[in-house]
Write a structure and sequence with these properties.
The chain is α+β, with helices and mostly antiparallel strands. It has four helices and seven strands. The strands form two sheets. It has a four-stranded mixed beta sheet. A three-stranded antiparallel beta sheet has the order 3-4-5, with no helix packed on it.
Length: 149
């Protein structure tokens, strides 16, 4: 772990201590010049992050985006799922951008159409960053979903 990654994670996710354990939380950061950065924080037990500790050189990350009914019956929830396909195991994590967030969800979806990379921070339940992954993002694969939120 590089100390710089720890500081970056804590600045992007200042409330990480309140996040549920074994979860993945999204964040959207917009710089003063308007540049957008979409990040996710996986906060999980060492058991769930075992593959991150012993990461092989070659593996594949699949991303899936889909909608589901919002539990508050307001809009639709946008789900983003990362499948980490390692040679001996598959780990997956999902994040929910809730439909009842209104403009915040729309802003997040708009940002997803403007970025080429997503950043995934993997940290243990104590907040210690183990890895930061840059995931190449092709927004055109999911453009039909964005129109529905």
């Amino acid at each position: 772990m590089i100390k710089g990654n720890q500081a970056i994670m804590e600045s992007i996710f200042p409330g990480w201590r309140e996040f549920p354990k074994n979860s993945m939380t999204p964040a959207l950061n917009i710089s003063e010049d308007g540049k957008k950065m979409v990040s996710f924080l996986i906060l999980a037990s060492k058991e769930l992050l075992q593959d991150f500790y012993n990461e092989p050189e070659e593996y594949v990350i699949f991303t899936t985006v889909y909608l589901r009914k919002n539990k508050q019956k307001v809009g639709q929830d946008l789900i983003i799922r990362f499948d980490f396909n390692y040679p001996n195991n598959i780990s997956y994590f999902e994040s929910v951008i809730q439909g009842n967030l209104g403009n915040s969800q729309i802003l997040f979806c708009k940002a997803l159409t403007e970025v080429q990379k997503l950043y995934v921070f993997a940290a243990d339940n104590h907040g210690k960053v183990l890895k930061v992954k840059e995931v190449l993002w092709d927004c055109t694969q999911h453009k039909d979903i964005y129109k529905l939120v």
